[in-house]
Amino acid sequence: MELTVLLRKIEARPQLYVGEAGIYGLRHFLCGYIMSEKEHCPAYHDWLFSDFTAFLAEKYQDNRGLDFASLIVANGTGGNPTDIFFQLIREFIGAAEMG
């Protein structure tokens, strides 16, 4: 399954995939998914933990080397970090498609 398809499914029903674990549970779930993809296809490009994280670091002007979940928690504007994650993913994907 393509990661963007999985992300849409998770956004629609996050409790089904990560329960009440929030942004860090989501990060762990997605890390497992990506590791599985890399096992099946070593050439798999992990844009979530690379390109998206770099996008957030630049957006937040935060070069501490944090993962995407920690960047959102540390720099988010309040609100639910998981909801902020999905807003930022849409912004990132839109920017990637435009660029």
Q: What would your notes on this structure say?
A:
The protein is mostly helical and 99 residues long. The protein is 74% helix and 0% strand. It has six helices and no strands. The radius of gyration is 13 Å and the shape is globular.
Number of strands: 0
Helix content: over 70%
The CA-CA distance between the termini, in Å, is 24 Å
Q: Can you write the helix and strand succession as a string?
A: HHHHHH
Strand content: under 5%
- Biggest sheet features: none
Structural class of the helices, strands and pairings? mainly alpha
Which value, in Å, is the CA radius of gyration?
13 Å
Low-confidence spans: none
| pLDDT averaged over residues | 91
SS summary, helix count = 6
Shape, principal axes of CA atoms: globular
Main attributes of the structure:
99 residues; mainly alpha; 6 helices; 74% helix; globular
Topology:
Layout: H1 3-12, H2 14-18, H3 22-40, H4 48-60, H5 68-75, H6 81-98
Helix pairs in contact: 3-5, 4-5
Summarize the structure.
By secondary structure, this protein is mostly helical.
